[in-house]
Amino acid sequence: MSQIPQPHPPHPSAPTRPAVDRFYAQGRLLQGLRAGLDLLQRHAPAQAARLALRLFDTPLPPRLLQRRPSMAPWQGLTLPFETRRLQLWHRPDGAERPRVLLLHGWSGQAAQLRGLAQACWDAGLSPHVLDWPAHGRSSGWRTDIAQWQRALQVLTVEQGPWVGIAAHSIGALAAAHGVARGLPTQRLALLACSAPPRHLLEGFVASFGLGLAVRERLRQALEARARPGLAGFEPAWLGRHLALPVLLVHDRQDRAVPAAYSEALAAALPRATLRLTEGLGHRRLLDDAAVQRQVAAWLAEAA
């Protein structure tokens, strides 16, 4: 693993569009949805936009169709949240240890972070691993990053404070935005941090062949949800509001989210450390023992 002391800001055109289509199966159901959206947007763009937004908010494959490995020795704690429930995983005998929060990404689940949780435990921390709404063993079928912000607030009030937060992909972007808006913690570790929502929207629109009329309606809907708008997820805004130490880990061969997004964010942050890996991709990054130890050690420095 190589450390980049302080990357130069990339050219604005450097980050290629994230491969949003990698989050969607290429089966008959998706082919049918593409065909249906194409027909609908020609005759009823408002209805096409509503259907597209529902799809944008739906993690695929649905959580009940995913294999859910055992979380032992981590034990489940169910928390009420809005009209749903959140599933949190922890070790009850770690009450006296400094608490850290671990967050997976879109279409992921807490079990992906078992290795990182163990590394944090071995470093003397008490890791709490969340299944986001509509993911893993938390309830719901649709969700969005604005709801994730509310979940972070509720979780922190009931189970915090956190000395550090480590998060993957879109979970990393949600964590960074939440901390920038005042969520208390001392350190952040962002693994394969996602592209900002406007880039995700562009990738989604391209994947489903949506036209400008539908795209604009989707953008307006996402802007209305976000505070302070989609600009609040961009490196420039985060750089002005994140003063704490931030570790960014990204693989150079990540085909879902190019490493250029983490490079751009690292360049904007005042106290960023960027580490690039080789050959791990987007999700296998979470399984790498060296990455797990480095993230755990980084969080433990705040304890």
Task: Please work out how many helical segments DSSP would assign.
Answer: 10
CATH architecture assignment of the domain at 2-24 and 75-196 and 234-300: 3-Layer(aba) Sandwich
Secondary structure: helix percent? 25-40%
Kindly name the structural category: alpha/beta
Termini gap: 24 Å
Major sheet description? 9 strands, mixed
Whole-number radius of gyration? 19 Å
Task: Tell me the β content.
Answer: 15-25%
Task: Report the CATH superfamily of the domain at 2-24 and 75-196 and 234-300.
Answer: Alpha/Beta hydrolase fold, catalytic domain
SSE series: EHHEEEHEHEHEHHHEHEH
How confident overall, as mean pLDDT?
89
CATH topology-level fold name of the domain at 2-24 and 75-196 and 234-300:
Rossmann fold
Number of strands: 9
Strand order of the largest sheet: 1-9-8-7-6-4-5-3-2
- In one word, what is the shape? globular
Keywords: Hydrolase
GO molecular function, one term: hydrolase activity
Pfam families: Abhydrolase_4
Domain Peptidase S33 tripeptidyl aminopeptidase-like C-terminal: 243-301
